[in-house]
Amino acid sequence: MTQRITGGCHCGAARYRGRGAAAAPFRCYCRDCQRLTGTGHAEMLPLERDSLHLDGPVTEYRMTAGSGAPTWSAFCATCGAPLTRRSDRMSDLVYVHAASLHAPEHYSPERILYPEAAQRWDRP
Ligand SMILES: [Zn+2]
Ligand SMILES: [Zn+2]
C-alpha cells in the first residue's frame, strides 16, 4: 500500500511530498534526536527515498550516527525547522519529522528507540 505524504517547514518556503514506506514509524530519545529537534525526542515517519520531492531552501547537515554510519539531517535554511533524516544504513528510506506533516494527526509511532536515553522531563 502506498500513501501520498506531504509536509513542509514552519515558514512555508520548504515543502516535500512522497510515498509512505512499509517500515515502522518511530519515536527516538537518543541525544542526536534531542539536539536536532531541540526537545526530548524525535517522531519519524518513513517514506520511500526514490519518491521524495523536496523543494525550497533546504540545507543538509552531515553527521555520524551512533552506528558509525553517515547520516544527513535536512532542515529549512530560512526558518530552521527540521524536515528529513536519511542514513546510508537504510538507503531506500528517508524519514520525515512527524510535526512537519500537513496531516500530523494521522501519525502514530510503532517503535520506541533508546528509551534509556530519555530526559527526566520527557519520559517514554
Ligand atoms: Zn522554513
Ligand atoms: Zn535518535
Automatic annotation (TrEMBL):
CENP-V/GFA domain location is 5-122
Query: What InterPro entries does its record include?
Result: CENP-V/GFA (IPR006913), Mss4-like_sf (IPR011057)
Q: Any keyword RNA-binding?
A: no
Q: Which UniProt keywords apply?
A: Lyase, Metal-binding, Zinc
Q: Which domain of life is it from?
A: Bacteria
Presence of the UniProt keyword Cytoplasm in the record? no
- Put simply, this protein is called Uncharacterized conserved protein
Q: Which organism is it from?
A: Jannaschia seohaensis
